[in-house]
Each structure stands twice: as C-alpha cells, then as structure tokens.
Amino acid sequence: MKIKVEDIRRLSTESSFERGMDYYYQGCVRDLEQFGSSITANVAGTMAEIKSI
Known about the structure:
By secondary structure, this protein is of the alpha+beta class. It has one domain. Helices cover 36% and strands 25% of the residues. The chain contains two helices and two strands, in the order ααββ. The chain has helices spanning 5-11, 14-25; strands at 29-35, 38-43. Strands 1-2 form a two-stranded antiparallel sheet. The longest helix is centred in the middle third of the chain and has 12 residues, at 14-25. It is globular and about 30 Å long.
C-alpha cells in the first residue's frame, strides 16, 4: 500500500507535519513504511527523538 501525504497530515500536528516535510525535501527521510495505521521512518536530524504517529 502506498503511503499518502493526506494520511500523514491527518495523523500529525501541523507543526510536526511541516517539520517532517522540510526533512523530506532535504532528503533526510529514509525507509518510510506503513504497518496498519502506523507510519514509521528513519530521519536524519539534529536531535535523537523517536515519535510514532
């Protein structure tokens, strides 16, 4: 199943979504996967924080 941007937006706060899109456009998002209603990814950033949406 292909992950839709609308699904990520619906499951996120606006600020988290915008930050995630910034990371995505910078090429920092890897291994995006969906497991049922959960979406996970590895993201290279400046802080080590694990967040499940």
